[in-house]
Amino acid sequence: MAMTVRSLPEDKPKILFYAAMMWVQNFGFFMMYFLLYQSIPELRDMGKGGECDTLRFWVGFFALDCFVESFCCIWMAMGGYTDSVCLFPVMWIVHLLVALPYCISTVTIPMAIYSDDGKVCRESAGPNLYSLVPVYWTHCGLFLVYVWMMLSITYFSFLKPTFVAKSS
């Protein structure tokens, strides 16, 4: 059976809406984490015991990953919306590959936040990093929402027309 990427006309607005929500979530987290990244101090120069290198790395890494993911989710959805048998599967895989660091960062960021060095780092930064913990827990809470949106685009672009939709 050949791969079918032929979204139904009534599903195209859903694909666009899910893509827009995914873009907003990714770009929003890019902005939040990038701003926090810029607020992480360099403690070695301040004579303090803890270091911020691990926290800085994971916050910066996640910010960059979210920026790239902002494009990948739109490209994937565009493939489903335009019924592209090439663009949709290629960008689905690229989106998945870019999402793997997203998954890893969802585990490593709290490890860095709550480590001894992370606690010293957050205390040293003062109010600049007060929002890091709620931003992380928002990111963590919306993780499954994002997965739902990706699976919905996959359903409306590929699974439904291939396995569910009845041919006339």
Overall description:
The chain has 5 helices and no strands. With 168 residues, the protein is mainly alpha-helical. Helix 1 (12-39) packs antiparallel against helix 2 (53-81), helix 3 crosses helix 4 (116-125) and helix 3 runs antiparallel to helix 5. It is elongated and about 65 Å long. The model has no long low-confidence stretch (mean pLDDT 93).
Q: What's this model, at a glance?
A:
By secondary structure, this protein is mainly α. Helices cover 76% and strands 0% of the residues.
Q: How is this fold's topology laid out?
A:
Layout: H1 12-39, H2 53-81, H3 87-114, H4 116-125, H5 132-164
Which descriptors would you attach to this protein?
168 residues, 0% strand, mainly alpha, 5 helices
Which descriptor suits the 3D outline? elongated
| Percent in strands | under 5%
> What percent of the residues sit in helical stretches (DSSP H or I)?
over 70%
| Cα distance spanning the termini | 18 Å
Low-pLDDT regions: none
Strands, total number: 0
* H/E topology pattern: HHHHH
Number of helices: 5
Global mean pLDDT: 93
Instruction: Please state the structural category.
Output: mainly alpha
Radius of gyration, taken over Cα atoms and rounded to an integer in Å:
19 Å
